Sequence to fold (305 residues):
Amino acid sequence: MSENQQRPRGVITPILTPFNDDLSFAPDLYLDQARWLLDHGIHVISPFGTTGEALSMATEERLAAVDVLVDGGIDPALLMPGTGLCNLPETLELCRHAVERGCAGVMTLPPFFYKNASDDGLYAYFDRLINTIDHPALRICLYHIPPMAGIGFSPTLAGRLAADFPDVIVAYKDSSGDFDNTRAVIEAAPAISVFPGSETFLRAGVESGGAGCISATCNVNPSGIRGVYDLVTGASEGDLDSANDAMVAMRKQIEGYAPIPAMKGLLAAARDEPRWRNVRPPLVAASIEKTSDLAARLGSALPPL
Fold:
């Protein structure tokens, strides 16, 4: 990974997944987007987060998509695939494949069907996952997104897993939208990299000891988000307040639409590639009219795509 193989830092993109008109996976667009993101300053790409429509993809498709990136020349040390499913066998398969292909880490949901699972139950799941894979290169980012999953990793559980598996549990993505939870995880698990799941909290996160952000809107604003990261970490000089305000304002505009279809619509329009508009049901593609409206609202804030 970009700055430290053991403890990731920086701006991480859960890359959008493009589909052909028959809704099959479109590897050419996927590889192009990955290259574009890295060219525009993204530190790490995370295939198959929520933004990548991961739970609308078959396990075999997800394995093949990682192969497309690695075989297409993307350095696997810059990849952190999403691997969490409700069942352990397929989660194991996705994690093993990522490790075998040399990926820097995996971003793993809790098993999310049993909404009343205890911390002890979730701990047992990850204990078995880690010990079954039993590979020195396994690195896990815990993916906390209770608004979608209905269950998550408490700060106490994150601290317990990080303490018991210090060479494996290296990061935590907090997509709860609750920055108090982010602070609590930083305090409970100080040895791991904690990432807010939105650039809205990028500045506050880094200033509180966080590691950067893992954000969907990196797909359409990678340079802007990387620029704020560089400013807040002291890697570059400039007007942090203005850059941060512009970045957050763009995020809020996109959040006013259905973000996945909205961002795909922006890419489709900017690149004259209608396949980018495709999403898998139950998502609904953004209309040309909605895309035009969003682009108009963003105005000059929308970077060249």
Summary: Residues 10-238 form a domain with the TIM Barrel fold (CATH 3.20.20.70). The chain has one domain: 10-238. The CA atoms of residues 63 and 97 lie 7 Å apart. Residues 240-255 form the longest helix (16 residues).
